[in-house]
Amino acid sequence: MKRKIIIFTGDPNSINSEIIHKTWNKLDKKLKKRIYFISNYNLIKSQFKKLKYNTKINKVENIFDQEGSFNIKIIDVNLKFQNPFSVKKNIASKFIKDSLKVCHNLALKNYTQGFINCPIDKNLLNSRKKIGVTEYLASKCKIKNNKEAMLIYNQKFSVSPLTTHLDIKEISKKITPALIINKIQTLNQWYKKKLKKKPKIAVLGLNPHNAELRKNSEEKRIIIPAIKKLKKSGINIKGPFVSDTFFIDSFKKFDLLIGMYHDQVLTPFKSIYKFDAINITIGLKYIRTSPDHGTAKSMIGKNKANPNSLIKCIDFINKYSE
Fold it and tell me: Do residues 164 and 211 both lie within one domain?
């Protein structure tokens, strides 16, 4: 029997209600029966009303309530609001953390393989530490030694940044041989276990032209020694490659690219694949995915949001919910 699929509706000040509505209209009826949303019933009802959507919504007690329903089923999380698309920051922050806690607890149980969260403004998690959902859930799962990883996944080619939401000036301080080794080992193990394949992995350098491989460069001191150690452990890995030319053609020879920082790999990846990708947190005690885009607050109410990434998240979770 297939397990339930849990979706957190994410940031209340976003395009999430639009992508949920568009996604719901494209889903198979059998799949709809197994999907439960973690959100606030009155919020979603108000947002749908404002957007003139007539999709039916039911409030349910748990993920076994109304199992046969084809309507959107909401497990209610408390939220006080006046304007459904302008929820105050402190209230939205508490709502997001409370909802993620519900998702985390459900995902630890055997009747779901994991969950999907729609986009979230990262400042609502912890504005001082600059963490995203990846780091937040890794903390909840008590993952140590940087063994969680962000994977932007496409069946043809995927990328993973070693550092996520750091300012550029902080990146070189964060990169160590241990960080590189732990993250790549986590990703390699996941590919073998979940996707049943030994991935071909490429690694980028940090500096322009790999700093010409000068003795004191991060490439010479940190990245190359880490790659050598990973090769000795049997991982199929090459690098470091120079960033400015890798995406011309070289990327086609690999399954996975490891970058040193967020935009180094996500910018070219999104230019090529656009919404044909999902964000997966690797190394947790369960599967967690999210659409590979942001909250897009400037697009609220314009009916321009693309639901394809959320649909792909559902397809991925469904595939592994046996």
Answer: yes
pLDDT at residue 241 greater than cutoff 70: yes
Range from 28-42, 130-144, 303-317 carrying the lowest mean pLDDT: 130-144
β pairing state of 112-117 and 72-76? unpaired
pTM: 0.92
| Cβ atoms of residues 116 and 8 within 8 Å | yes
- Kindly report, residue by residue over 199-216, the tens digit of the pLDDT: 999 999 999 999 899 999
Which residue segment(s) compose the domain that 184 sits in? 150-276
Instruction: Please check whether residues 99 and 216 belong to one and the same domain.
Output: no
Residues 187 and 260 in one domain: yes
Query: What CATH number did the domain enclosing 263 receive?
Result: 3.40.718.10
- Find all residues with CB under 8 Å of 55, minimum gap 6, and list them: 21, 24, 25, 48, 71, 72
**Other Cβ atoms within 10 Å of 80 Cβ, number:** 12
